[in-house]
Amino acid sequence: MRHTPRYLMTDPAEVKRLIRHHPWATFVSPTSAGLVASHYPALLEDGEGDDITIATHFGRPDEVAHEIGSHEVLVIVQGPHDYVSPSWYAPGDLVPTWNHVTAHLYGVPELLSEDENYAMLTLLTDRFEHHRPDGRSLREDEEGTRRIAKGTVGIRIRVSRFDARAKLSQNKPAEVRENVIAHLERHSPDLAAAMRRAPELTEPR
Questions:
Q1: Residues 9, 13, 19, 20: is their CA dihedral positive or negative?
Q2: What 3-state class would DSSP assign to 37?
Q3: Domain limits of the chain?
């Protein structure tokens, strides 16, 4: 990503927050056949301090296409984003932009055992079902869901480094930012909320 110091997001806690709230991720591998990309949910694993570890599952045979375990992969987590119109700026400021919160995570994946994969899939399902009135669980039919889980491969990635940006109109005067936020709140409230948190996201700790 373009290196603009005012947009750098360097706090691991904010990257973890991004993963929790936006778990749909893109996994990119530089394989012997060229670049390969797949899309799967990323489950943030609990960890101490600044360490970031994510778990996911690939549907077979994606793990073969990605040559998992033989090289570093790039995981792209895309947070709120939207077009910003210059009509929301002061007169004469005519250049539009696109505000976004994005993290690039790097690490070498490790394959999970069959039991570890099933445990991860159970946690992943619970993550999205627990708030639903009639939420379901893989535990309701462990024999059947374990059989289906064999069609997937569990993966854990201990993030060795990340490159994250929160580009949220930090280069604009406060009154312009407030006007952009007011417009975004109508159709992109998550991005408007991120703009209000911009100092927390990008100011050095």
A1: negative
A2: strand
A3: 5-171
CB 60 within 8 A of CB 77: no
DSSP 139: G
Burial class (CB in 10 A: 0-12, 13-18, 19+), 64: exposed
Top CATH class, 5-171: mainly beta
Q: Is the pTM of this model over 0.90?
A: yes
* DSSP run (H or E) holding 146: helix 142-149
- Residue 107 tokens read as 């690490």
| pLDDT tens-digit series, residues 74-118 | 999 999 999 999 999 999 999 999 999 999 999 999 999 999 999
DSSP 171-186: TS-HHHHHHHHHHHHH
Q: Are 153 and 57 in contact (CB under 8 A)?
A: yes
Q: What digits encode the pLDDT tens for the residues 28-75?
A: 999 999 999 999 999 999 877 899 999 999 999 999 999 999 999 999
Structure tokens at 27: 């996994």
Closest CA relative to residue 156, chosen from 37, 1, 46, 33: 46
**CA 81/CA 78 separation, integer angstroms:** 8
CA dihedral 174, 179, 185, 187 (to 10 degrees): -130
Tell me how crowded residue 4 is: count the other CB atoms within 10 A of its CB: 12
